[in-house]
Amino acid sequence: xxxxxxxxxxxxxxxxxxxxxxxxxxxxxxxxxxxxxxxxxxxxxxxxxxxxxxxxxxxxxxxxxxxxxxxxxxxxxxxxxxxxxxxxxxxxxxxxxxxxxxxxxxxxxxxxxxxxxxxxxxxxxxxxxxxxxxxxxxxxxxxxxx
Length: 146
What we know:
Number of strands: 8
Radius of gyration: 17 Å
Structural class: alpha/beta
Shape: globular
Strand order of the largest sheet: 2-1-4-6
Number of domains: 1
CATH superfamily: Cupredoxins -  blue copper proteins
CATH architecture: Sandwich
Distance between the termini: 48 Å
Strand content: 25-35%
CATH class: Mainly Beta
CATH topology: Immunoglobulin-like
Largest sheet: 4 strands, mixed
């Protein structure tokens, strides 16, 4: 009985410690920002497994969704509603390419790097075919992956 109680307490402590270490990171969806027109800010976000990413529209007409060819293996696709906040808990290590569907052709992209070390999907993310303006914005983000 005492052993079971100690195991249960240890499991609770580990659970609370894991939850306490998770961060909430905010990415804003903007018509105009530091990087120009139609941007996510920040464009590159580094996160840990279990972190929460909150996509906040500061201007109407934006959404956040994953770019299918830039998603870690086994990660669920991300699709947010237009003009509404989206909250995502990242559960797989790797790179998550994010687009605003209506402004993808205008280069509205972001990159989330989850986990330490070389992302397992770095090569496929670099090989992804994107519209020209999206490629122009994504290339320097991918160059910052470490």
